[in-house]
Design brief:
Layout (H helix, E strand, L loop, with lengths): L3 E5 L5 E5 L4 H8 L1 H6 L2 E4 L2 E3 L8 E7 L4 H22 L4 E2 L4 E2 L2 E7 L6 H16 L5 E5 L1 H7 L4 H8 L7 E6 L2 E4 L13 E11 L8 E10 L2 H17 L1 H7 L3 E2 L10 E2 L1 H20 L3 E2 L5 E3 H7 L1 H4 L8 E3 L2 E5 L4 H9 L10 E10 L15 E11 L4 H19 L2 E7 L9 H17 L5 E3 L9 E7 L5 E10 L2 H4 L3 E3 L5 E3 L1 E6 L4 H12 L12 E5 L5 H13 L4 E3 L5 H10 L4 E5 L1 H6 L1 E6 L7 E4 H13 L5
Parallel strand pairs: 1-5, 16-20, 22-23, 29-30, 29-31
Antiparallel strand pairs: 1-2, 3-4, 3-5, 6-8, 7-8, 8-13, 9-10, 10-11, 12-13, 14-15, 17-19, 18-19, 20-21, 21-28, 22-24, 24-25, 25-28, 26-27, 31-32, 32-33
Helix pairs in contact: 3-4, 8-16, 13-14
The structure holds zinc ion (2 copies).
Length: about 650
């Protein structure tokens, strides 16, 4: 057997096959069950379809519906099926790209009108037919000239083809009547697509460029299992219900108004109350943990950002220049240089370090209007920012402190999280050995804490490695939480030094760190995490007192006063009927409704309805109620 190939499986077994054998034949050689379950294969690190011949020697992992990579293959294949359906209904529709994305897939079409919901329904039906037909996905390698011929009616595909070099391996895929320019891979045939749904349609610029034509994008999702699709659709519903823009309006927390400007948030009293409570808690905590609070202006000489290098690398994020005579000013995009200037204003000894300067610093960044999103992507934000000045030998201790503090804060707000370590990118400036040694030290800190962290190879900044905290919210979605960024470069640029025990001047190491991120993003995220039902300590309105009828109004008023005197945010609602008041309190997500009728007024009790509690109503002594509230606030209890 001279012509044979060897495929090495993940467990180390090597299987010998005849030359030209495919991944599917490998699966068959292992067993008929696997051959049936296999969806695609990973060959030498690359996901390919089962019909691809294997190279002479390779490492192969077969993918079944249990592997996350297989889901992407299914979803991308679903995009082809969608395009097949759209082309059958609208043969002249131009086709753009159709990738798998987080949570599903999309496909862009060049059509004169936006799609209607009725059209989406029709496409979905047609997709089910295409899937039912089990059309195989057939790969064909073509020359550039052949490809141009095949897609001569498709200007978008021709534009893409024009970017390929002449020796590029160009593949096209056919399923049934539909042909697409695509690198693959796909599932063996359209029959794998059983559980899918088209979700929405929206305009999208060709290649994301605002200057190009607007295409119509259809979003969809697909899963291998029916239950997974149902769970996903349920989560999408829940996400819609918790959308911070919807809740922000409903609960009167914030607004963004055209007259003020896109991406510029107005905090209403209710949102302002929440923000104040978060900031107040944060500042007190920071002071307890050895931070100093500093304040810096919103406008700054551009020169400062020339020294820091941001003028060069961060040009697009800066607001335009404001000229004053010969001086050029910018809105502040970040607080770092200001904190450096504060540090530099004094001489520091090795004994003074670490020095921790914290600021809830408002910054301004130019974001394209198309990328803005409620409170989560804005043009003005207040960063929970700090710069910590340490000696090189203090890196481990300071990172341990940061991780402790972050752990404490995230638990208070009820977030789970994981950590990631970003290592040296190619564009790094300065001594690679120092960078790598520091990265290793950060890795050791994480390991010593027993954290199961992810390594983001090359994901570090050009001036130093960082530790990222990724939080998971109540819907299982991940957000960027804290970032602890080590910096060896800025101390050189800004001359940040300390006098050592040897009486010599040495450069400090800077840690740029945020624990919560910006107040806008953090509180926007909290609104969705809690679904608007803020725990008692953060609720803008904590207790609403409802008299049953006229005779109990006085007792109700007295309870409101008593609660306010004890420091609680309480109000009286005597509008309309009791039923109306209860419903109103519930839809406003007030944590406690305290109902007082004549019986309660006489007995000095109150009928308490706790938001979301199983037991509808509990009668208790007023003093016990106040104590319970105090305890819940003191412990910052989550619901
Ligand atoms: Zn494809
Ligand atoms: Zn910074």
């Amino acid at each position: 057997m001279s012509a044979s190939i060897q495929a090495k499986l993940p467990d180390g077994t090597v299987i010998e096959l005849e030359s030209g054998a495919t991944a599917l034949e490998l699966a068959r050689a292992i067993g008929p069950g696997l051959a049936k379950a296999a969806v695609a294969a990973v060959v030498d690190g690359e996901v390919v379809e089962l019909s691809r011949p294997l190279p002479e020697e390779s490492e192969v992992r077969l993918l079944t519906d249990r592997d996350p990579e297989a889901l992407d293959v299914l979803r991308h294949s679903a995009a082809h099926v969608l395009a097949t359906a759209v082309r059958e209904v609208i043969p002249e529709a131009g086709i753009g790209f159709g990738p798998a994305i987080d949570g599903g897939f999309y496909y862009d079409f060049d059509v004169p009108e936006p799609f209607t919901p009725e059209q989406l329904e029709a496409f979905e039906k047609r997709m089910a037919d295409v899937a039912g037909e089990g059309q195989p996905f057939e790969r064909q390698v073509v020359s550039k000239a052949e490809a141009e011929e095949l897609f001569s009616d498709d200007p978008l595909k021709l534009e893409r083809l024009a970017e390929f070099s002449d020796d590029e391996v160009i593949s096209v895929y056919r399923n049934g009547p539909f042909l697409d320019l695509c690198r693959g891979p796909h599932v063996p045939n359209t029959g794998s697509l059983k559980h899918f749904r088209l979700l929405s349609a929206a305009g999208a610029y060709w290649r994301g460029d605002e200057k190009r034509q607007m295409l119509q994008r259809i979003y969809g999702t697909a899963f291998f299992k029916k239950q997974d699709l149902e769970d996903h659709l349920h989560r999408l519903e829940e996400a819609k219900r918790r959308d911070h823009r919807v809740l922000g309006k409903h609960l009167d927390l914030f607004s963004i108004q055209e007259e003020v400007g896109p991406g510029l948030v107005l905090w209403h009293p209710n949102g302002g109350r929440i923000r104040h409570l978060v900031e107040d808690f944060l500042k007190k905590t920071l002071i307890e943990h050895g931070y100093e609070l500093v304040f810096t202006p919103h406008v700054t000489q551009e020169e400062l950002y020339r020294i820091s290098g941001h003028l060069e690398v961060f040009q697009e994020g800066l607001w335009p220049v404001m000229e004053d005579g010969g001086d050029r000013f910018r809105m502040k995009p970040m607080n770092c240089p200001h904190h450096f200037m504060i540090y530099r204003a004094q001489t520091h000894s090795y004994r003074d370090l670490p020095l921790r300067y914290a600021e809830l610093g408002t910054c301004y960044r130019y974001e394209r209007s198309g990328t803005l999103h409620g409170m989560l992507r804005v043009r003005s934000f207040t960063q929970d920012d700090a710069h910590i000045f340490i000696r090189e030998d203090q890196i481990e201790e300071e990172y341990n402190r940061l991780l402790d503090l972050e752990d404490y804060l995230l638990k208070v707000f009820g977030y789970e999280y994981r950590t990631a370590l970003s290592t040296r990118p190619e564009k790094a400036i300065g001594d690679a050995a120092i960078y790598d040694a520091a990265t290793e030290r950060l890795g050791s800190v994480l390991k010593a804490r027993g954290l199961d962290f992810e390594v983001d190879e090359g994901g570090g900044a050009f001036y130093g490695p960082k530790v990222d905290i990724l939080v998971t919210d109540a819907l299982g979605r991940e957000w960027q939480g804290g970032t602890f960024q080590l910096d060896f470069l800025m101390p050189q640029r800004f001359d940040l030094q300390y006098v050592g025990a040897d009486n010599q001047r040495h450069n400090v190491v800077v840690v740029h760190r945020t624990l919560l991120g910006s107040m806008e993003r953090f509180i926007g995220g909290l609104i969705e995490h809690y679904g608007g039902a803020f725990p008692l300590w953060l609720a803008p309105e904590q207790v609403r007192v409802l008299p049953v009828s006229e005779p109990s109004a006085q007792a109700a008023g007295a309870l409101v006063e008593e609660l306010q005197a004890a420091g609680f945010r309480a109000s009286l609602d005597d509008r309309d009927t009791l039923g109306y008041r209860i419903r109103s309190g519930e839809t406003q997500k007030v944590p406690y409704l305290a109902i007082i009728g004549e019986r309660e007024a006489e007995a000095g009790t109150v009928a308490v309805r706790k938001r979301g509690a199983e037991e509808k109503q509990v009668v208790m002594d007023r003093s016990a109620f106040v104590e319970r509230l105090a305890e819940e606030v003191r412990t910052r209890a989550l619901d």
